[in-house]
Every structure is written in C-alpha cells, then in structure tokens.
C-alpha cells in the first residue's frame, strides 16, 4: 500500500488561511503560485534547466515563468541528453467550450513537442467530467469531447506523433494500467490528496487511476520504461503526485512534470479562474470585443487620476493576456508595462491594442478549427503507437 | 445520491454474534441460510413461485431449495407470462481452478436458460479478483479466466444464446454503464454494504459498479428495458442490492435475483466454504477418491456405535454432495438419508457410493472441458448481442 506524506499534501489541497484553494476541480481565490511550490513540494524551473531545453531560452512561456515549476525535469533532461527518448502526456477535461486559458498549456505542449521532437498522448477525460459534475450526462461530455478536440487539433500538434485518447472510447487501452494503479492507492490516500468525503461517489474516488494510466502507457507499449513528461496546470499536480508515488511500486519511472500558471479571467478581482469572463474559441469578434472592452483592469477611476498616478499592470487581466500569450516580444511587453505604470497608456487604448492582437489570433484559430473537422481521424489512438 | 438501508445492510455483512460471515469475498463459519434471508431482506422462493417456472417443480435445485431465496421473481414471472422476454446474468471471479461448488450455480443457470429459452451474459470478473487478492497479478487472473472458461463452456450453455464477458477484455462495453452506476454510489454506501475501510484500495471501492453493468447491458443493447434475472450464490447479494437501488435512478428495471446455498466442503466442520477440500475439475480420479474417502462425515467414532445410534446426514458434507448435486432422485436421496440415520449405511460404503456418482460425472465434465478448448470463440462477447 502507498504511504503518502499526508500532512504536506493535505495542506496543499486547501489553504483557507491564504484565501485561495487549488484542486484539480476547483481554483478559487487569489492564487499565490510561490506558496503552491512550497506547499505542493515542487521545484522552481531554474534558468539553468531552461537553458538545457532546446530553444528553452527562446520560449516565451519558459522565459516568462508562465511554466514555472517542475518535478524531475533535471532527471528527464539527463536521460534525454544521454540519447534516451521520452514522450509527452497532457489532457483536457471536456465539460464545455474551449477558452484561451485552456489553450495556453496546449500551445506550450505543442512547442515542447517541436523542441524535443517527441510523441504526445493527449487524454480527454470525459469520464472525469461526467463523474465530478453532477449535472453532466455522458452525452454532454461526448459532445464536449468532440468540440474540444477541434480546438486541440487546431493548436497544431503533429498528427504523426500525437494521439488523442478519449477515456470512454479508449478505456480498453487504459483499464489494466488503471487497475494496477488503483490497487496501490487506498481511500485514505485519495481522501488526503483530493479532500474526498464519505459522500464522494465511488467513480470519482477511482478516477485518479485513469488519469495515471497514460503516464505508463508509453512504457507498456514500448515494452520498456520510456520517460514521460507531463505539462499541465499546477492544479493537476495532486493527481500526478499519486502517479509518481505509485510508479516505482509498479516498476515504472516516475513521470516528470512541468507546471503552468493559470491565465486570469477578464472580469478580474480574483485572479485565479480563467473561466471567469474568458474568451471562448467560438466567440464572434463582436463578443470578444465586448469582453475585452468590459474587462476589469488595474486602472484608476478617472483618466485624470490615471495620467497622474499611473495604473497597476500586476493586477490587470488585460496586461496578463499580453504577458501570458499575446505579446511575444519582451521589449513590447516591457513598454506596455512601463507605459501603464507611468500613466502614459490608458486602459481604453490598451484594450484596443489587445484586440488588435486577439482578433487575428482567434480568427486564425477558428480557421484551423474548421479544418480540424476533417482531421479527427488522424489523431485517433488505436493502441500500439 | 443513493440512500441505503444502512442498518439492515450492515447487519447483513458481518454477523459476529451468529459466528458466521457472508460477504462476496469471504464466507466463514456455519452459515444459517434462514438468518441470511431475514438479515439481507430477501424472500423465500415459495412452491407457488417455483410452480410458475416452466419445469420448476421437476428441477432438483428448486425442489430441494438449494436455490431458495429471491428478489422480485414474482415480478419477473408476471412479465414473462405476459410474453416479455428477459435475460440471465451470472458470473465467476477467476482466481483459481474450478471446483464442484462453483459448478453448481452454473449448472442451475444452464437449466434456467433451457427452461425459459433465454440469453445469458456470463461475466468473468478478473478485475475483481486482481483487486481483492493481494498476491494475484493480472497475468494470474488472465490464466485463471481462460482455465475457468473451459469449465463454464463444458457445463453446456447454448453458444447461440450465451456470451462470456471478460471484464478486462470487454471493459469498453461495460465502462459507460459502470460510470453511470458509480456516480450514484457514495463511499458511505460501499462501506456500509461491503464493510470497506479507509485502507481499502480505490479499485476495490469502484469495482461493484463493474459488477452492476451486465444487469443493464441487455437493456442498453436492446434500446429498451429488458428484465434481467441473476442466479447467484447468496454471498453475491450485497453487490446486487446496490445494483437494484441504483437501477431506477438510471431508468432501468431492478434485476431479479435467485439465490443459492453454497456446497459445503468435504473436510467438514464448518459447513460454509466449498473451497475447503473441494473437488476440482482438474483432479484425477485418484485425487477425487482420496478426497472423498478422507471426507469429514456425520458418522460415529466406531462402526458398532454407528450401527446402534445411526449418524447425522444434516451435518455431513458427503450427504450434501448427494443432495446438492449428485443424486437427482428424491427417493434414492431419501433412502440414503434414512439409512444414515438408522445406522444401516456406514460412512465408508456411503463414500464409495458417492464416488460411483462423482467419478463418471467428473469424467464426462473433463471430456467436455477438453472439447471446450476449440469452442472459446463461440462465446466471445462482441457487443450488440
């Protein structure tokens, strides 16, 4: 049976004192990402590690520490530098449409695929969403899966090296691994890691074993241990702590992790949930325009005051949209930051400028999304690859 | 969420006061089958119900109340008499070889299939055995599954109307139903019904949802509610209480159940576990002879005493082997009983007589078992049937 570090893990799940909460199913409050590193027991992604990744220093998400935390990346790079391949594994819980916050780690994952020239398993956890969302039916999650797959494919993953695993469709490839994982995880452990109660349903309790499976699937298919790297939002770390604790008990390597921050929603205040006034991939230009122009900002009450005192980009979701995704030039980003601080840049102009970045970005994505409708078959997982 | 009758169910699982315990995974002590009916809340199978079953009164297992308890058989027969078909569902947890005690409910199930001319799903719960038996690997349960399937096929099920479902092989046909079941069952319920603890592994906790699935599979495939009858040992009733409680929440009929007693083991004393000195289908004639001749009996210490006082067939596993399986004639069985009671029949002679029944029975079974090796494909479940 698995022995977990109950205290630190339990502390990681709920942090009432800090007024924020991060679980795989709920992110509320003002997330302090530094505190998450110490509470979850992860490590900061250092410049040294980043410079060992091919093109790491040129990668915006790494350079800006949007992906900022990790587990065992050093070990993975050691192995990679000795000529051993690895594979990527990430996923999506398909419960609704895709927004920019979802796409951010997918874009980064595609970049990792390009940087390292590796295979990727992309898991659609439709079972998870069904089990954890009271109102959702399997028909709902099936529809969301098909919808979300269009966005995933539109992000530009290499069809020759990317397989999308849909849990309910591809369960025959996951179940045996999940059984082996589940035999090593007690209810006590699941309770400590996820905060489950006696009233939690038995499907939700079992589910983490399904999310572990792709981390070992590559090794099972290869017939030898193949390292796995999981890029994900740091909210998913609790699942993979279990995966990592179980791995040696089953004779596998622990998967390495690289953790991202979550894109703040446009309606502001709390900076955590990207679902809050998020821009969806199916939004029209008019809807996007409205959301951006209505966005919360770090601005002052009046133009006069802002000209005089400047505004605060650090609490501004409009600024974070530049920083996290839409302004790749550090120089341009720095200019936005200092002009905001100085009062030279007013929120209305800043929002219009953001729109000039977002609208073409989304336009291009929508085009790719339409093309993806004919490409679904290219990404089907058929086992053995 | 599912509301269970905690008290009665909990009482059903452990009955320390009565010095016997019946769960789906453990049967110990002297089982009082009448107490199980009241504690589990099942009903006795009455002569009236038996006579409504085609050939019911002629069926040895029914007539002798080896299958003695039920849930909703009256409802099932009402429906059947109105011309509605139903299907049978039973199963086997493949952890080791097959013995006579396992075969008894299979033989009865085959007779039900003949009596009602109906389809049967036979579930091999290899996942269950893997999860609940610490030392078993999935390779072990895979081997046991193949081995046990030979015995199942040898029992004579109609290949046109019987499909064997192997959980790990056929999970894609079960998983969606299991998910829907699992969403309606809390850990509290599973704990109350099965006696789980916080140290129980999360696979075992989820498993009951997999055992529920075949009870609804026939309806899903037909696209309309098809009643289901589950013949099983009464030790399996806890699983199906959950199945039945969940059924209406998912829009299905509750499956009907018909419960059997368990064939006592030959080494006697405790009358519950059929695994204790059981006769396996792969035993040689010499091994069978040895087990029978060494069997515990209800006899006296000396021949003289037995001639004078008679013996006790009611506590004798040799007698129970006649009663449960090997002496179809009530008249002949009654003679054995009274000759035992009177002292006219000595245990040695009685054992030799039993051997004259068992050896040809097992010889025939071994022949059918060999033939079954070429017939495995005839029983594969391929969905949609």
How is this structure best described in words?
The structure is a homodimer of 385-residue chains. By secondary structure, chain A is of the alpha/beta class. The first copy, chain A, folds into two domains: 6-262, Rossmann fold (3-Layer(aba) Sandwich); 285-371, Tyrosyl-Transfer RNA Synthetase, CATH 1.10.240.10. Chain A is built from 18 helices and ten strands. Chain A has helices spanning 6-13, 33-40, 47-52, 60-63, 73-81, 100-116, 126-132, 138-154, 167-182, 187-194, 202-212, 214-222, 237-246, 285-293, 303-309, 317-326, 330-342, 347-372, and strands at 14-15, 20-23, 26-29, 43-44, 67-71, 87-92, 119-124, 162-166, 228-233, 256-260. A seven-stranded mixed sheet of chain A has the order 4-5-10-9-6-7-8, sandwiched between helices. The longest helix of chain A is centred in the C-terminal third of the chain and has 26 residues, at 347-372. Chain A is globular and about 65 Å long. Chain A starts with 5 loop residues before the first helix and ends in a 13-residue tail after the last helix. Chains A and B meet through helix 7, helix 9, helix 10 and helix 11 of A and helix 7, helix 9, helix 10 and helix 11 of B.
């Amino acid at each position: 049976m698995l022995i977990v570090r109950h205290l630190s893990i339990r502390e990681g799940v709920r942090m009432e004192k800090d007024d924020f909460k991060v679980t795989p199913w709920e992110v509320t409050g003002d997330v302090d990402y530094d505190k998450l590193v110490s509470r979850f027991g992860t490590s900061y992604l250092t410049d040294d590690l980043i410079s060992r990744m091919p093109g790491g220093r040129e990668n915006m998400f790494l350079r800006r520490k949007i992906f900022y935390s990790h587990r065992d990346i050093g070990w993975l790079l050691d192995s990679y530098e000795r000529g051993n391949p690895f594979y990527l594994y990430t996923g999506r819980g398909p419960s609704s449409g895709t927004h920019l916050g979802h796409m951010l780690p997918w874009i980064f994952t595609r970049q990792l695929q390009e940087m390292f020239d590796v295979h990727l398993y992309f898991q659609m956890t439709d079972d998870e969403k069904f089990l954890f969302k009271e109102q959702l039916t399997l028909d709902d999650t099936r529809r969301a899966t098909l919808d979300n797959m269009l966005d995933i494919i539109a992000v530009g993953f290499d069809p020759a090296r990317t397989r999308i695993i849909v849990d309910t469709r591809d369960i025959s490839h996951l179940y045996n691994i999940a059984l082996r994982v589940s035999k090593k995880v007690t209810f006590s452990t699941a309770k400590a890691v996820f905060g489950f109660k006696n009233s939690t349903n038995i499907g939700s309790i079992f589910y983490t074993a399904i999310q572990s499976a792709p981390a070992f699937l590559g090794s099972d298919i290869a017939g030898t241990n193949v390292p796995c790297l999981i890029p994900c939002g740091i909210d998913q770390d609790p699942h993979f702590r279990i995966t990592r604790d179980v791995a040696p008990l089953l004779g596998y390597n622990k998967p390495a992790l690289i953790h991202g921050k979550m894109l703040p929603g446009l309606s502001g205040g709390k900076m955590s949930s990207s679902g809050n006034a998020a821009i969806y991939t199916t939004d029209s230009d008019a809807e996007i325009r409205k959301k951006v122009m209505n966005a919360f900002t770090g601005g002052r009450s009046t133009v006069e005051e802002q000209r005089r005192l400047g505004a605060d980009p650090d609490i501004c979701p409009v600024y974070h949209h530049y920083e996290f995704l839409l302004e790749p030039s550090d120089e341009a980003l720095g200019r936005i930051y200092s002009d905001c601080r100085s009062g030279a840049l007013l929120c209305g102009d800043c929002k219009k400028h953001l729109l000039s970045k977002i609208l073409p970005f989304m336009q291009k994505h929508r085009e790719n999304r339409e093309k993806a409708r004919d490409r679904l078959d290219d990404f089907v997982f058929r086992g053995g690859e």
